[in-house]
Design a protein that fits this description.
The protein is an alpha/beta fold.
């Protein structure tokens, strides 16, 4: 089992936390997985494999470890559907998501090594929950990640601020090239990005973070549950099927702002199945992407109150619908429920598309997956104009609101 020399410090015992970061195809996950399998054969070791968001075992490192066990014929390991156990010494691997899972994480006993994959998405709160949980003498935490933004909490903690006994390994694709482990198809992709898309090359292959200025949405809050006083105003629907998820998001009005709550996020949903989900939710107008009129008509035929979003922006607005509708979101106070896992992932990752030099292209859609965001965006564009109309009436003396707060659009 080959280990690149750049990673040899993993086998030393003089570090507590490790930040292993860099660009694509730098062998981070594969090397750490090999290290953990070797260590689990050397002596009894409990390994906790974590990600910020893990809805199923398929989203974990379980498959990678299983593949390596099969590749190297490590027959002393028994692989089950949700765990891996060494039959000779009792070493075991467990797999957990960190987000909104504090009590479950705190209850895990005896972790020797915690491995956090895709750690660029891990919140500061999740790090603070996990760190004291891994408390055995000699225990370790390993974070592998490709930097997303300049202020990623894991990078701030371990590299910018620094912690005692921290191992830092910064690696890129040149490691794979050095040992002849970079597939030709990836090498050609890398060369093409370097020649034609230098800004993308720096982020994708050299691991440089996106500027925080590229974030489309900022300062959204989180909430555990929807308050009883909140009022359901709209439901947004973004239609997908084979390659894209169908997303349904409920929009509540509360205390001058809006609460978004994820209802559905799933591929392969047919219109009848979508209607079955909607008909079992509280009754409210559903706003869907108007690019799918046939699907909207079919869903309506099952008794659903649904309409397509109007992609007009008013007589004086010259922006594209995409830019205008995101501007609507940027101007509002928005909170997400903590159970809205896919919505939160999209919110954190969503950045504006850029040209080859890294300049923002405002006329294009943001890059990164945004199906749940789109569902909520369609719904919000049907609410905000109502608010603005009422506010204009109020300013003309036709209505008056004592506290000068925003008028509930349902009133």
């Amino acid at each position: 089992m080959d280990i690149p020399v750049e990673y040899k410090r993993l086998f030393d015992d003089d570090w507590r936390e490790a930040a292993i970061y860099g660009g694509r195809n730098s062998l981070k996950s594969h090397t750490v997985a090999r290290f953990l399998l070797i260590r689990a054969r050397q002596r009894k070791t409990r390994v906790g494999c974590f990600r910020e968001f893990q809805n199923s075992i398929a989203e974990s490192s379980h498959q990678l470890l299983k593949d390596l066990i099969e590749k190297y014929h490590l027959n002393d390991f028994e692989v089950t559907n949700n765990a891996i156990i060494n039959k000779l010494n009792g070493s075991d691997f467990i797999f957990k998501g960190l987000w909104h899972n504090e009590q479950s994480i705190k209850s895990i006993e005896g972790i020797d090594i915690a491995w956090v994959e895709e750690a660029q998405t891990v919140s500061a709160n999740s790090i603070e929950v996990l760190t004291p949980t891994v408390r055995k003498p000699g225990s370790k935490l390993i974070y592998t990640y490709n930097r997303l933004f300049e202020d990623d909490p894991v990078h701030q903690r371990l590299v910018i601020e620094g912690r005692p006994n921290t191992l830092v390994i910064n690696v890129n694709y040149d490691v794979a090239l050095k040992y002849g482990w970079m597939p030709e198809v990836l090498r050609l992709e890398m060369e093409d990005d370097r020649e034609r898309r230098p800004a993308l090359f720096k982020h994708k292959w050299l691991g440089e973070p996106n500027s925080s200025e590229l974030k489309v949405l900022k300062d959204w809050a989180m909430i555990d549950e929807i308050p009883h006083e909140a009022r359901l105003e709209r439901r947004g629907l973004d239609l997908g099927y084979t390659n894209d998820e169908t997303a349904i998001v409920d929009i509540y009005y509360y205390n001058g702002g809006y609460i978004w709550d994820e209802v559905l996020y799933q591929k392969g949903m047919q219109n009848k199945q979508i209607a079955d989900v909607l008909i079992n939710q509280p009754k409210v107008l559903t706003i869907a992407d108007s690019a799918e009129p046939k699907s909207i008509d079919e869903i309506r035929s099952y008794g659903i109150n649904i309409m397509g979003v109007s992609k007009t922006k008013g007589e004086t607005n010259t922006d594209t619908f995409v830019k205008w509708s995101f501007g609507v979101l940027q101007s509002e106070k928005i909170t997400m429920t903590k159970r809205s896992v896919n919505l939160i992932k999209e919110y954190r990752n969503l950045v504006w598309a850029t040209d080859r030099e890294g300049r923002v292209l405002n006329i294009e859609d943001p890059k990164c997956k945004n199906h749940a965001i789109s569902a909520g965006r369609y719904a919000m564009t049907t609410i905000v104009p109502v608010i603005q109309r009422k506010e204009r009436l109020a300013s003309m003396g036709m209505a008056y609101h004592k506290n000068k707060q925003r008028i509930n659009p349902a009133v």
